[in-house]
TrEMBL record, chains A, B:
InterPro entries: Ald_DH/histidinol_DH, Ald_DH_C, Ald_DH_N, Aldehyde_DH_dom, G-glutamylP_reductase_CS, Glu-5-SA_DH, GPR_dom. Its EC number is 1.2.1.41. Catalyzes the NADPH-dependent reduction of L-glutamate 5-phosphate into L-glutamate 5-semialdehyde and phosphate. The product spontaneously undergoes cyclization to form 1-pyrroline-5-carboxylate. Gene3D superfamilies: Aldehyde Dehydrogenase, Chain A, domain 1 (3.40.605.10), Aldehyde Dehydrogenase, Chain A, domain 2 (3.40.309.10). PANTHER family: DELTA-1-PYRROLINE-5-CARBOXYLATE SYNTHASE, GLUTAMATE SEMIALDEHYDE DEHYDROGENASE. It comes from Pseudomaricurvus hydrocarbonicus. HAMAP family: ProA (MF_00412). It catalyses: L-glutamate 5-semialdehyde + phosphate + NADP(+) = L-glutamyl 5-phosphate + NADPH + H(+). GO terms for biological process: L-proline biosynthetic process. This is Gamma-glutamyl phosphate reductase. The gene is proA.
C-alpha cells in the first residue's frame, strides 16, 4: 500500500472511531486511561528495550546530545507518563456540558453543548512521552487521535502504541481511537495535514521550522505556537521589590521555555533605580545583557539591535529597553511581541486596567512572572500546547481547547412562522 | 500602485486601526454606529443614484434577474440597514467580559477576558446591505474590517463606504477601521486571504464555489459555511401532529435557505401512518418527492439516488428515507449531513438525549423545526454567517464569534518557584 492509501485508511478509521469515542461515557474513557497505565507498567521492560534500540540507532546516526536526551525514557519520565494518565483520568470531562440555556420569544429553549472536535492529528518530534500526553488528553476530550512522532523515536512510539491499544480494548473502545502512524515516510505528514474529510485539527509540537512548514501547507486548521517573545514592563509606579523579583524570575527560572521573558521594558523614571541592581543579579546568573542607548548609559550592556527585539533567545540573554511611558512600552509590545505573554509591574490601578485590556497577547499579567503562563499553573490540569493563534483557543490549550460547542434546541413541536 | 502594494497598505492600515477599535469604549462604538445610520439617511439620494448606476450597468452586462434582485437597494432594504445599525448599537458589548476568575494554589488569580480577533476580512457577493451588516458587527465586536464586495455592487458599496467613514470620524475612530477595497481587480482577494500578518480571520459570504475557492487558497483562518444538508428524523415515539407540522415547516417555510430540511428520515414503525398525509401536503405546496424503495412502497415518489442524499436542493425538492431505527437514522446523518442542523421528533426521553449528544452538527434539535437555526432566533441579535466548521465557532456566528478569549493573571509580585 502506498503512503497516500495508507493515510486515507488511517483517516477513515479515525473518523469512524471518533463517533465511538464521542459517545463513550466519562467512565469508559477513564477506565481506558487507567488501563493504558497498567499496560505500560506491565510492558515496562519491553518499552525500555525499544527505547534503548532507538537510542542506539540515534547514536549511530550521530544525533546530538540534546536530541538523545529528549529521546530517552528515564525512570522519572516513565513514572511521569503513568502519573499523567492518572491525572487526566481524574480531570473533569468537558464533554456534554450544557451552558447558557434560555427561552426565546418563539418558545424554543436554546443553549450550547460542549462536544469533541472529532479527529485530532498530532505531529511531534523526539520525545516519546508526548505520545502518552497527547493521546490521553485527546481521548479524555472525546476525540480520536492520529499521532505522528519523530522517526528517531519510532520503536519507542510503537511500543507505547501497543499499550494504548490494549488499554482501549479493555475499556471496550475501538483500538483505532488512537492510531500511531506506522511509517517513517515523510510524505505521511503531507497527507495528514491535507485530509479535511478525516482530520478536524492539527496540533504540531516541535521547533519553529516544523510548525511554519505545517501551517503553510495544511488544509486543516492548525492550533499552533510559534515564538514566545515575552515582555515584562516595569512601570514608574511599580513596587521595585516586586519588579526586581519578577524580572529575575521571568528570565532566569528557566531559559529554554516559551514563557521566559526575552525583553525587559523599563520606565525611564525608575531605570536608574532598578537597572544597576538587576544588572548585578543577572551578572551573577550569567545572563548576557543587550540594551538600548539609554540602558547602556546606566549599566554595562552590549548594543541591542533591531533583530534583538524580535528574537526569542531561549537562552541566558536579555534585551533591555528604557521607555518614556507605558504607551511606548505598549507600542513596543504591539510591534515585537509574538502574542504569547506580557506582564506589567505597577501599583497604578488605571494603568494596570489599561495594560490588561489593550495588550493583545494570549496571557496578560499584572505583577506576576511570565513563567506562570502554563496549563498546570492555570488549573487546566495538563496542556497539549500553548496557542499563539487568535481564533479558537489562545494560551495554554487543555481539554477544553480540544472541544467546541454546538447549539442545542428544545422545542415542543415548535415551527417558525 | 499595483494590487499587491495596495492590499499590503490596506492591511497595514487595518492592523494599525485595530488597536484603536479594540481600545474604543462601548459608547464610542455605539456612537459611531448611530452616526453611520445618520450619514446613510443624509446621503440617501446619493446612495440610491449609485445603486441605480450599478443596476443599469448590471442590466447592460446581462446579469440575471436573481442577481439584479440581490443588487437592488429597495426602500425596505434601505430601512433594514438603518434598523440593523440601531440594533447592533443596542446589543451588549462582548469585549472585556472577564469570566472564570479564580485563585490558584500559587496565589495568582487567573481568568479569561473576551477580546476582539483583530482584523476581519469579509468577502461577499452582490448584496450591498452586507457591507453595513458586516461592518457594524465587526465594529461592535472591536475589530477592524476589510470588506471586499462584488464588482457588480461597486458604486453602491463605495457610496456606503463614504457614510461609514463619516460615522467613524464623528465618533473619533480612525476611518481605516472599516475599509472597502477600492479595486475590482480579482487579484485583491488572493492578496487578502494570504496576509496573516495583517488579517486574523476571513468570513466569506456567498455561493459554495466562492467559499471552496477561498478555503483552498487561504493562509488565514476562514470561518465558513458550505452546505446546509439538514435532516429531520421522525421517530416511532414521535407525536405525529408535531412531526407533521415540523416536517412541513422545515421544508416549505422557505426553500432557498441553508436551514431548510433537505432529507426526511422516518422510522419504519410510523412511515405508513405519516407519509401519506405528508405526501398530500407536500403535493399541495408543489414539493417534488424522491424516496428510497420503502418510501416508494407507501407514497408516490421518484427514486432517490445516492446523489440525492448528498445534495442541498435549496428548492422545493425533498428526499425521504424510511429507516429501521434511530441508529440507522444517525448513521445516515453521520454519512450525508453537512453538519449544519438536524432535528429529532420524539417523545422518548432516552432517545432525545442520545440524539442530542451524539449527532455532530452545529445545531441539534428536539421537536423543533430546523428553520430555527438562525442568529436572530437564537438571540445573538444578528449574525455574520453560520459556521459549519468545528473549531472556533459553530452554528450562527454573532458578536461573540468575532471575538476570542485571552488569559488574564493578577498577582501581587508572584514568582514561580
Amino acid at each position: 500500500m502506498n503512503v497516500q492509501a495508507y493515510m486515507a485508511q488511517v483517516g477513515r478509521q479515525a473518523r469512524e472511531a471518533s463517533r465511538a469515542v464521542a459517545a463513550a461515557t466519562t467512565g469508559d474513557k477513564n477506565r481506558a486511561l487507567l488501563a493504558v497505565a497498567d499496560a505500560l507498567q506491565a510492558s515496562r521492560a519491553e518499552l525500555m528495550a525499544a527505547n534503548a534500540e532507538d537510542l542506539q540507532q540515534g547514536r549511530e546516526n550521530g544525533l546530538d546530545a540534546a536530541l538523545l536526551d529528549r529521546l530517552e525514557i528515564t525512570p522519572a519520565s516513565f513514572e511521569g507518563m503513568l502519573e499523567g494518565l492518572r491525572q487526566v483520568a481524574a480531570l473533569p470531562d468537558p464533554c456534554g456540558a450544557i451552558t447558557d440555556m434560555s427561552y426565546r420569544p418563539s418558545g424554543i429553549q436554546v443553549g450550547k453543548m460542549r462536544v469533541p472536535l472529532g479527529v485530532v492529528g498530532i505531529i511531534y518530534e523526539s520525545r516519546p512521552n508526548v505520545t502518552i500526553d497527547a493521546a490521553s488528553l485527546c481521548l479524555k476530550s472525546g476525540n480520536a487521535t492520529i499521532l505522528r512522532g519523530g522517526s528517531e523515536a519510532f520503536r519507542s512510539n510503537q511500543a507505547i502504541a501497543r499499550c494504548i491499544a490494549r488499554g482501549l480494548a479493555e475499556a471496550g473502545l475501538p483500538e483505532t481511537a488512537v492510531q500511531i502512524i506506522e511509517t517513517t515516510d515523510r510524505a505521511a505528514v503531507g497527507e495528514l495535514i491535507t485530509m479535511p474529510e478525516f482530520v478536524d485539527v492539527i496540533v504540531p509540537r516541535g521547533g519553529k521550522g516544523l510548525i511554519e512548514r505545517i501551517s503553510r501547507d495544511a488544509r486543516v486548521p492548525v492550533i499552533k505556537h510559534l515564538d514566545g517573545i515575552c515582555h515584562v514592563y516595569i512601570d514608574d509606579k511599580a513596587d521595585l521589590e516586586k519588579a526586581f523579583e519578577i524580572a529575575i524570575n521571568a528570565k532566569t527560572h528557566r531559559y529554554g521555555v516559551c514563557n521566559a521573558m526575552e525583553t525587559l521594558l523599563v520606565h525611564a523614571g525608575v531605570a536608574e533605580a532598578i537597572l544597576p541592581r538587576l544588572a548585578v543579579a543577572y551578572g551573577e546568573k550569567g545572563v548576557e545583557l543587550r540594551g538600548c542607548e539609554r540602558t547602556r548609559a546606566i549599566i554595562a550592556a552590549a548594543v541591542a539591535t533591531e533583530e534583538d527585539w524580535a528574537t526569542e533567545y531561549l537562552a541566558p540573554v536579555l534585551s533591555i529597553r528604557v521607555v518614556e511611558d507605558m504607551a511606548q512600552a505598549m507600542d513596543h509590545i504591539a510591534r515585537y511581541s509574538s502574542g504569547h505573554t506580557e506582564s506589567i509591574v505597577t501599583e497604578d490601578y488605571t494603568r494596570a486596567r489599561r495594560f490588561l485590556a489593550q495588550v493583545d497577547s494570549s496571557s496578560v499579567m499584572v505583577n506576576a512572572s511570565t513563567r506562570f503562563a502554563d496549563g498546570f499553573e492555570y488549573g487546566l490540569g495538563a496542556e497539549i500546547g500553548i496557542s499563539t493563534d487568535k481564533i479558537h483557543a489562545r494560551g495554554p490549550v487543555g481539554l477544553e481547547g480540544l472541544t467546541s460547542q454546538k447549539y442545542v434546541v428544545f422545542g415542543d413541536g415548535h415551527i417558525r412562522t
